[in-house]
């Protein structure tokens, strides 16, 4: 009986996700609709993601027979309601479609992680609660900093110091120095430095409206990237580099400068490839994983096997074997989704990530304040590049970089960083938060 329900759920889950995705695409052009129509579309989309979460949780409960799954489902629905209410009380949200996408990504994360390991799912839920509260408090703090862009060198100093500390005393994970430990708490400072980095570059550009802004931003960005390269955190270094390049281009729109910067980046990439053996190993695993399947290519090979096994409609939730993929809850969670929910659902997820990115850029370019316009564009760039690096590595489109899938992969540091960024985006319509440089009352 359970096997029949699981098999049928492949169709219902696909239906909910497909409907959500279609509404996502429609809402990219929501400026053509009245407020009433947009509200109706957002409501239907919220219903679709709720039905998806309920459907998947029921399947997990029937298979695992663990009452904690039902308890988590109730708490998750309450949390999603509170997040929506909190953002509406905090300010008029920039986009309700963005909130729906956030809830969809979190639902996907909860379902997949609970399927892999119930304790990991519980931990991710706790991280989400903490991230929501922390993001709310940090945004309130930011809103009360007078002309925050003038503190750009403070942001740079804090970020560089954190990265230097990681370089000297950080824990080595998968060949790179990534995290710090304080008692039982372990976190990745680079995730939070991303936001400081955006505030620094944006502050330089809008404060110094001449060559000095470009110079300060370039030198600061170079220091950040070099420290990350020395720490062998090359995935994050690439995100920082791409963010700098694209933000500078958005600010100055100079193709010559962009070309020169890309040339320097290419030379740096070639140097890093020759300097670090583990990068060469990842390229070998990328070009021909089966030739080194017993060693360097094992992870990507298992990922491809899982995706291929799932086919278009998936093996059915709990019917696959995603635990064979190393680090599946972090770097390769997209492969677990593809195996059990199917390629069609995975394509929908990719489209939702694309829609989410475009929505962020829409909010950014509609922003009235030049500083926050650049900050929001930077958030959009980081989200987009990180998503491409993660999914591209999982499907063997590009070499694996070891970065997480935003809002979906397990991990508290990445989740908190993304939540802070999301709250900044949603609060960007606040006239006190974005606009005249006034305090928030």
Report on the structure:
The chain has 16 helices and 3 strands. The longest helix has 30 residues, at 35-64. Helix 4 (96-116) runs antiparallel to helix 14. The chain has 441 residues and is mainly alpha-helical. A 3-stranded antiparallel beta sheet has the order 1-2-3, with helices on one face. The protein has helices at residues 2-27, 35-64, 67-90, 96-116, 118-143, 152-169, 189-207, 211-230, 234-252, 255-275, 277-287, 298-310, 333-341, 343-365, 370-394, 412-426; strands spanning 171-173, 176-182, 185-187. The chain is globular and about 70 Å long. A hairpin with a 2-residue loop joins strand 1 (171-173) and strand 2 (176-182). The chain has 2 domains: 2-143 and 280-426, no CATH class; 148-275.
Please give a quick description of this structure:
The protein is mainly α. The chain has helices at 2-27, 35-64, 67-90, 96-116, 118-143, 152-169, 189-207, 211-230, 234-252, 255-275, 277-287, 298-310, 333-341, 343-365, 370-394, 412-426, and strands at 171-173, 176-182, 185-187. The protein has two domains: 2-143 and 280-426, no CATH class; 148-275.
How would the blueprint of this fold be written?
Blueprint: H1 2-27, H2 35-64, H3 67-90, H4 96-116, H5 118-143, H6 152-169, E1 171-173, E2 176-182, E3 185-187, H7 189-207, H8 211-230, H9 234-252, H10 255-275, H11 277-287, H12 298-310, H13 333-341, H14 343-365, H15 370-394, H16 412-426
Antiparallel strand pairs: 1-2, 2-3
Helix pairs in contact: 1-2, 1-14, 2-3, 2-4, 3-4, 3-5, 4-5, 4-14, 5-16, 6-7, 6-8, 7-8, 7-9, 7-15, 7-16, 8-9, 9-10, 9-15, 12-13, 13-14, 14-15
């Amino acid at each position: 009986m359970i096997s029949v329900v699981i098999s049928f759920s492949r169709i219902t889950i696909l239906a909910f996700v497909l409907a959500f995705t279609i509404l996502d695409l429609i809402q990219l052009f929501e400026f053509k609709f009245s407020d009433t129509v947009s509200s109706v579309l957002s409501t239907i989309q919220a219903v679709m993601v709720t039905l998806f979460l309920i459907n998947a949780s029921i399947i997990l409960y029937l298979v695992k027979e663990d009452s904690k799954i039902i308890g988590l489902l109730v708490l998750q629905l309450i949390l999603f309601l509170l997040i929506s209410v909190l953002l509406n009380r905090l300010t008029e949200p920039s986009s309700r479609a963005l909130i729906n996408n956030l809830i969809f990504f979190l639902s996907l994360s909860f379902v997949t992680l609970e399927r892999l390991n119930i304790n990991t799912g519980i931990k991710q839920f706790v991280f989400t609660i903490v991230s929501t509260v922390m993001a709310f408090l940090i945004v309130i703090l930011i809103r009360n900093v007078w002309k925050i862009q003038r503190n750009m060198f403070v942001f740079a100093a804090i970020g560089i110091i954190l990265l230097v500390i990681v370089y000297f005393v950080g824990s080595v994970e998968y060949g790179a120095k990534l995290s710090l430990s304080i008692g039982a708490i372990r976190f990745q400072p680079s995730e939070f430095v991303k936001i400081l980095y955006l505030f620094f570059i944006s502050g330089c550009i809008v404060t110094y409206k001449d060559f000095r802004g470009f110079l300060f931003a370039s030198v600061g960005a170079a220091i950040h990237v070099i420290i990350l390269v020395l720490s062998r955190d090359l995935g994050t270094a690439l995100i920082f580099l791409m963010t700098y390049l694209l933000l500078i281009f958005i600010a100055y729109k100079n193709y010559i400068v962009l070309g020169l910067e890309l040339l320097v980046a290419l030379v740096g990439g070639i140097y890093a490839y020759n300097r670090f053996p583990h990068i060469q190993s990842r390229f070998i695993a990328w070009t021909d994983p089966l030739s080194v399947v017993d060693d360097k290519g094992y992870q990507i090979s298992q990922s491809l096997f899982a995706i291929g096994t799932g086919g278009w409609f998936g093996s059915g939730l709990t019917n696959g074997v995603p635990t064979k993929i190393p680090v599946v809850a972090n770097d390769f969670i997209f492969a677990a989704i593809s195996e059990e929910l199917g390629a069609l659902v995975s394509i929908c997820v990719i489209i939702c990530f694309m829609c989410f990115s475009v929505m962020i850029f829409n909010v950014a370019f509609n922003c009235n304040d030049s500083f926050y316009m650049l900050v929001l564009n930077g958030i959009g760039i980081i989200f987009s590049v990180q998503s491409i690096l993660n999914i591209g590595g999982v499907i063997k489109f590009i070499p694996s970089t070891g970065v997480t899938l935003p809002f979906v992969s397990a991990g508290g540091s990445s989740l908190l960083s993304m939540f802070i960024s999301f709250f900044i985006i949603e609060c960007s319509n606040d006239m006190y938060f974005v606009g005249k440089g006034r305090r928030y009352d």
